[in-house]
Design goal:
It is built from 13 helices and 9 strands. It is of the alpha/beta class. It folds into 3 domains: about 80 residues; about 130 residues, HAD superfamily/HAD-like (Rossmann fold); about 60 residues, no CATH class. The protein starts with 9 loop residues before the first helix and ends in a 5-residue tail after the last helix.
């Protein structure tokens, strides 16, 4: 890592010195021609004016090209929004805080889990919606979606065991999970702002294949992240320590430099037990404030 007190690279000092010497030399020549009353004075004056404008521009372009070719951050780098940040030798922003990684849950954090509306939109009244929910979304069997071990039909059969009288309604409701997650407009700008400030961003969520494939627009933020884990792919769910440790090993995270944001307190408790920092999500503004208190600036 570099720091703000690091000496200016030699090539930059040489370029700057050459530019200064050239300009000073031209103005000395202009002064001598003016004193001698030479007819070339006017042309030299125009040349000095042009050089005063052109030389800094050429120096800027040269430094930018060097930075672009080497991947290093320079004063000419086209990232004005991070010009006041520290950068490593490859041009990546160095976060100001101990925290260098932000990990998000998905449901009710990056997207909204709208299970009630999802059921109602199948054409059921409030009473039936509540009954279907108790047998499915609000039951212990809901985790079977997230574990990824059973087919949709097999999961629906488990729901039907909870309330056999509405087995048909349960099969119909959970044929697919389209529209069970709604999009949050702040999500992608939030992720991009964190990444622009130099933080790595990942997701860690109990999430099913059916929900992922049924809600492509609401899940578009996945492509914005640096990576992450969805439980159905690994067949393990939070708050099992295994899923947290898998994220750490897969992406070489440092637990004490990582903050996890989840709307379920037990999942945050599990993360803290493993040395992570944690924030229980209540609302966006609250999390932004809590991140700020941890030194996360973006």
């Amino acid at each position: 890592m570099t720091n703000n007190n690091e000496k200016t690279p030699t090539y930059k000092r040489v370029l700057a010195l050459c530019g200064i010497v050239l300009l000073v030399g031209m103005y000395i020549a202009l002064l001598l021609l003016a004193v001698l009353g030479s007819p070339a004075t006017y042309n030299m004056f125009l040349g000095c004016v042009a050089a005063t404008v052109a030389i800094p521009i050429m120096l800027w372009i040269t430094i930018w090209v060097v930075g672009a070719l080497t991947g290093r951050h320079t004063i000419a780098s086209l990232d004005a929004m991070t010009s006041n940040k520290r950068h490593d030798k490859y041009g990546n922003v160095i976060p100001d805080s101990k925290i260098d990684t932000v990990v998000f849950d998905i449901g009710n954090v990056l997207g909204t889990f709208v299970w009630k509306e999802f059921i109602e939109n199948k054409g059921y009244d409030a009473e039936m919606t509540d009954r279907i929910a108790r047998a499915s979304v609000l039951s212990d069997d809901w985790v079977e979606f997230d574990k990824g071990n059973l087919t949709t039909r097999e999961i629906a059969e488990k729901f039907a065991e909870n309330d056999p009288e509405i087995a048909e309604e349960l099969y119909k409701t959970f044929t697919d999970l389209k529209d069970i997650i709604s999009k949050r407009e702040e999500t992608i700008p939030w992720i991009r702002a964190l990444k622009a400030a130099g933080y790595r961003v990942y997701y860690l969520s109990n999430f099913s294949k059916q929900a992922l494939e049924g809600n492509p627009d609401s899940m578009a933020f996945i492509e914005e992240c640096d990576g992450g884990i969805l439980s159905y792919r690994e067949h393990v769910v939070k708050p099992d320590a295994a899923i947290y440790n898998l994220l750490v090993s897969r992406y070489e995270l440092v637990p004490e430099n990582t903050v996890f944001i989840d709307d379920t307190e037990v999942n945050i408790t599990a993360a803290k037990a493993l040395g992570w920092n944690g924030i229980v999500y209540k609302n966006y503004d609250q999390v932004v404030k809590d991140l700020h208190n941890l030194g996360v600036r973006y």
